[in-house]
Amino acid sequence: MPVINSFNSEKRGVGSWVQFIALAGLLLVIAASSPFARGQDIPPPAQSQGEASSTPPDLKAWDLHFQSTAGAQGHPSFSADYTGLNSLTPGADVKDTISVDVMGGVRLWHGGEFYGDIVIWQGYGLSNTLGMAGFPNGEAFRVGRTYPDASLCRAYIRQTIGFGGGRVANDDGLGGKKDVRNLTLTAGHLSAKDIFDNNAYANDSRTQFMNWSLMANVAWDYPANTLGFTNGAAAELNTRVWSGRLGVFQVSQVANGLRLDWNLARAWSAVAELERRYSPKGHAGSIRLLAYDTRAHMGSYQDTINDPNLDEDIALTAAYRYKYGFGINLDQEIRKNLGFFARLGWSDGKNQTFEFTDVDRTATTGLSLKGTGWKRPDDTVGLGLVMNGISAAHRQYLAAGGLGITIGDGALDYSAERIVETYYNCAIAKHFQLTFDYQFAQDPAYNRARGPVNLLAARLHTEF
């Protein structure tokens, strides 16, 4: 069953904000004052006079970064013929979220690195992160917190094995260079999205689009606990223009659960991706083909519908079943400072959404424009379009009163969920970005009986 927010009745008080600000301030001081805050150069080996150093000058032994993202999102009242347990509430609402990350890396040996990330977070999504399949705030966890909570969200090792083909700069924060042709192995606690389904223009809800549908392929029920992280391993084979990736990850014990299933012989998610990079007329672009196959202790939509004694409780049909799907992901620079992106996704839609959100079909596209034309080169304007859908069995299950992870109005007058999002991300000072975001949602949660909904947000992002 979906995780139900146990903090529904709590109200945010001044004391909770004081605690959070104090904790965030302490982390900021630590990050800023650490001798490794900008990385510590590896000293070159002892040399005889006139001998050139073979150590790249930007190679670091340590790297430490800090980020904070605070935002508020709300909507005015909208029309709704009825309201169910997982509905977006029709009355006017405003919710806020805040997150603080301290992220670091350390060089272990030649080609070997360790990365860690501690996140502290607080706040709620609108209607307790319910009511839309393409939920409008990527910073909102499905379980909210009135007081700060902390989690070790990443702790993994990465090993890069070079095969020549020239040298290129590392983009991992530790500096140095790596072979163009290489095999990269990653294992530990991380997000599958760290490796798969990346996009230059629609990937990061902290600086780009906020909607879940525009930060990932939402038809990919990607393996993760309710906070978005899992354990797993991945291998990436890279050349100058091609990359092939394969990963195997743990899945949750129950749908959208916090604990992972350790019955590894029967519960897992395998992901494969093939990427081709190209530069027509010097404009960088790439296309990625994604496929996944998941086995988890999940329920069946059809079995639930067929047995009226279950009262639409899909958990009562749970068994180790398969779920598979495919995706296409494109990003392309059209001209300098203007980029285009698109994603298509499909899943079989036979068994319950288990990890991410209730989408079996998705199509998204949009544009991203840098502010060079109005002398604001660090500003970005984005426009994204979303259409989400679900399988026939999934529709029948929701129409009968079934609940998904984020949706379930108690009935359903089906229509595709359509969303438009636009944002302006303004660089207000060094390390500080302020974003204003607007989303328009037509038929949220696939229901003609609800909406449309206008959603407004403001977001402040800081990085050091």
Any overview of this molecule?
The structure is a single chain. The chain has 464 residues and is mainly beta. The protein has four helices and 19 strands. It has helices spanning 14-33, 212-215, 301-306, 392-399; strands spanning 40-41, 60-75, 93-109, 112-123, 145-162, 167-169, 177-179, 182-190, 230-238, 242-249, 268-278, 285-298, 319-335, 338-347, 361-371, 376-389, 417-429, 432-442, 453-463. The strands form two sheets. A 16-stranded antiparallel β-barrel has the order 2-3-4-5-8-9-10-11-12-13-14-15-16-17-18-19. Strands 6-7 form a two-stranded antiparallel sheet. A hairpin with a 2-residue loop joins strand 17 and strand 18. The longest helix has 20 residues, at 14-33. The chain is globular and about 65 Å long.
Feature tags:
19 strands; globular; 45% strand; two-stranded antiparallel sheet; single chain; 16-stranded antiparallel barrel; Porin; mainly beta; disordered N terminus; 464 residues
Question: What is the H/E order?
Answer: HEEEEEEEEHEEEEHEEEEHEEE
Contiguous uncertain segments of 5+ residues: 1-55
- Sheet of most strands: 16 strands, antiparallel, barrel
CATH class: Mainly Beta
Report the portion of residues in β strands: over 45%
Radius of gyration: 23 Å
CATH-defined superfamily: Carbohydrate-selective porin OprB
DSSP strand tally? 19
Give the structural class. mainly beta
Strand order of the largest sheet: 2-3-4-5-8-9-10-11-12-13-14-15-16-17-18-19
Q: Can you give the helix content as a percent range?
A: under 10%
